[in-house]
Amino acid sequence: MQILIRLLKPIEPWYNFTKEVLYLEEKPLEFEFERWERIDSVIYDMTPPPSSQHQAIVGNLYGEFYTYLKGKQCKAFPAPFGVWLDDENDNYVEPDITVICDQSKIHPKGCVGVPDLVVEVLSPSTALKDKRVKLRRYQLSGVREYWIVDPLNKIVEVYNFSENVFTEPAVYGKDETINDGILNDLAIDLRNIFD
């Protein structure tokens, strides 16, 4: 109930991406300096901040994506980077890494529309949400590929949603290379990610 009350307090104008459809026009003042996500109209607090291990893994992975995508149509963005998955304003997320191949979805404040690939690095405070709530939301929204990086077990689960059918993820261990998926010739040696 406390979050509901917080959402009803005064709000300030925030950002209007397009004239045709308005995306998250107003943002609650209480969240101005906090990180939060909205999934299926439910607000999720993103505090406490991620650990140094989490950030190192995000940095290592982002470096691999950045190097691979340099000069190509797709672009990678590390968190914090806002993603509005729909025009109903029910789904605003900040994935750890977002890959977008349709340049028209990239706006000054983030991504408006469904990205092609999303990466989430698990933290104790977000693991359940990342593995259940976000997995379902990303699939239903049309994300083509979703990576869940587990620092504790040193594995990466890669979900391919291209066929709009749920399939078991491909699971890669710390000594393996991810070399298949929607980015055809991308090869990421996980020894470089978990070090």
From TrEMBL:
The UniProt entry, under CDD domains, shows:
DUF820-like
Classify the source by domain of life: Bacteria
Q: Where is the Putative restriction endonuclease domain?
A: 33-178
Query: What Pfam families does this protein's entry cite?
Result: Uma2 (PF05685)
Q: What is this protein called?
A: Putative restriction endonuclease domain-containing protein
